[in-house]
Amino acid sequence: MVGELGLPAFRADQLARQYYARLVGDPAEMTDVPAGIRDDLRERLFPTLMTPVRHIECDGGDTRKTLWRLHDGTLLESVLMRYENSEGGTRNTLCVSSQAGCGMACPFCATGQGGLDRNLSTAEIVDQVRAAARALRDGELGEPGRLSNVVFMGMGEPLANYKRVVDAVRKITSPAPDGFGISARSVTVSTVGLAPAIRRLADEGLSVTLAVSLHTPDDELRDTLVPVNNRWSVSEVLDAARYYADTSGRRVSIEYALIRDINDQPWRADMLGKKLHSALGSRAHVNLIPLNPTPGSQWDASPKDVEREFVRRVRAQGVSCTVRDTRGQEIAAACGQLAAEELAV
């Protein structure tokens, strides 16, 4: 593309370093590029992909949710979170979206309730990362810092937009000038259980963390909670997860949104632990998620005593289990809520 603009080859490296290393997305800011070509560069190579509609912060400024409007009017959300670690430093995590909306139709999920608008392009996924990295660098969430983790847990099912997500992961993890240089071990790709795509991802050799949104260990309930289970059963999903663990050498995270009186029964905790121990052994880690209820939803989070007992029973089966630190409940941080509110205005 640089050649088509009649520019010398070294400009490609120069522009890549501006974008990935200096986090500049607007040619007007690229002072080492001749002013006479910046308008052409903007039109041909750097069109405005996303415009912030609004930022909402909570958790003392450590969590910021952004609603973006894409070039075609589509709404998109991302969430940036700062965590203090035990050494006194911070871990900065971006929850990135891979689709506008979601077609998986999980009934307790705000994005699933709204349906799928469209897949995001690789550039639209990657630009969320650039924007977050720049915001952290410039101290927009407090002390200046760097983006350390990216999780594909925002709007959409990442493996339903497979090629673009994989392309985005390569750009996120490649060193400059080809990418942001974030460690693959600090990138998580979540899925509701598209078994063939999990196996395909394993063969990519990316070494990212795989997170499987299981939410219940039995097919009867999962057919309702995660409708794609009607196509790929719990056993098929866990077989694919085991293949991923065997191929990548990475532990698999099992996401489990704990919902009051729906999937929080002691016998389900026992079944979950047994099935995971059989399929994955020590390579499974259950990430228990207190449900973030959406407005008007019939679903609610389980009481803390039920949550504690669930954790105890899973661990009793020899499977690691922890409760996720919940963030952003007062700012509608469950992906899809902010976009739904904007559309309702």
Automatic annotation (TrEMBL):
Source species, domain of life: Bacteria
Transmembrane domains' residue ranges: none
UniProt remark on cofactor binding: Binds 1 [4Fe-4S] cluster. The cluster is coordinated with 3 cysteines and an exchangeable S-adenosyl-L-methionine.
GO annotation, cellular component aspect: cytoplasm
Required cofactor names: [4Fe-4S] cluster
Residue sites binding S-adenosyl-L-methionine per the record: G156, E157, S190, S213, L214, H215, N292
Subcellular location: Cytoplasm
UniProt-listed GO biological process terms: rRNA base methylation; tRNA methylation
Broad class of where this protein is predominantly found: cytoplasm
Record's keyword terms, sorted: 4Fe-4S, Cytoplasm, Disulfide bond, Iron, Iron-sulfur, Metal-binding, Methyltransferase, rRNA processing, S-adenosyl-L-methionine, Transferase, tRNA processing
Mitochondrion is among the record's keywords: no
Reaction(s) catalysed by this chain's protein: adenosine(37) in tRNA + 2 reduced [2Fe-2S]-[ferredoxin] + 2 S-adenosyl-L-methionine = 2-methyladenosine(37) in tRNA + 5'-deoxyadenosine + L-methionine + 2 oxidized [2Fe-2S]-[ferredoxin] + S-adenosyl-L-homocysteine; adenosine(2503) in 23S rRNA + 2 reduced [2Fe-2S]-[ferredoxin] + 2 S-adenosyl-L-methionine = 2-methyladenosine(2503) in 23S rRNA + 5'-deoxyadenosine + L-methionine + 2 oxidized [2Fe-2S]-[ferredoxin] + S-adenosyl-L-homocysteine
CDD domains: Radical_SAM (cd01335)
Catalytic residues as annotated in Swiss-Prot or TrEMBL: E77, C335
Keyword Nucleotide-binding: no
Gene Ontology MF term list: 4 iron, 4 sulfur cluster binding; metal ion binding; rRNA (adenine(2503)-C2-)-methyltransferase activity; rRNA binding; tRNA (adenine(37)-C2)-methyltransferase activity; tRNA binding
Residues annotated as binding [4Fe-4S] cluster: C102, C106, C109
Residues of the Radical SAM core domain: 88-324
Family: Belongs to the radical SAM superfamily. RlmN family.
HAMAP family for the chain: RNA_methyltr_RlmN
UniProt function note: Specifically methylates position 2 of adenine 2503 in 23S rRNA and position 2 of adenine 37 in tRNAs.
NCBIfam families: rRNA_mod_RlmN (TIGR00048)
Name of the molecule in the record: Probable dual-specificity RNA methyltransferase RlmN
Source organism (scientific name): Gordonia jinhuaensis
Gene, per the UniProt record: rlmN
